[in-house]
Amino acid sequence: AVPSSTVELGCSARGDPAPQVQWHKERGDLPWGRHEVDREHTLRLYAVTPADAGAYVCTAQSQLGTAAATTFLHV
């Protein structure tokens, strides 16, 4: 990603019952005040900096189990 740009990281999770979806950064916190997750579970990071680079994990959990996917952001 280009510094100062907006990045979208998608996460598709479906099921019955619908899973709860959460995002976290593998080492550190999501950028405070510069991120949001929409109803389709897309994580948006605003005004990215080199400090935002790293692994981001989307976790979907329901009473049937848990699934996780990791994506890597390079700034």
TrEMBL record:
Query: Chief localization class?
Result: membrane
Annotated GO biological processes are: axon guidance; dendrite self-avoidance; homophilic cell adhesion via plasma membrane adhesion molecules
**Places the protein is found:** Cell membrane
Q: Cross-referenced Pfam families, in alphabetical order?
A: I-set
Looking at the record, the residues that make up the Ig-like domain are 1-75
Q: Where is this region: Disordered?
A: 1-21
Q: Which UniProt keywords apply?
A: Cell membrane, Disulfide bond, Glycoprotein, Immunoglobulin domain, Membrane, Repeat
Q: Indicate yes or no for the key word Repeat.
A: yes
- GO molecular function annotation: cell-cell adhesion mediator activity
Xref: Gene3D superfamilies: Immunoglobulins (2.60.40.10)
Q: Does the keyword Protein biosynthesis apply?
A: no
Q: In the UniProt record, which is one GO cellular component term?
A: axon
Superkingdom as given in the UniProt entry: Eukaryota
Q: Which InterPro entries match?
A: Ig-like_dom, Ig-like_dom_sf, Ig-like_fold, Ig_I-set, Ig_sub2
- This chain belongs to which protein, by name? ROBO1 protein
Q: What is the protein's species of origin?
A: Prunella fulvescens
Which gene underlies this protein?
A: Robo1_2
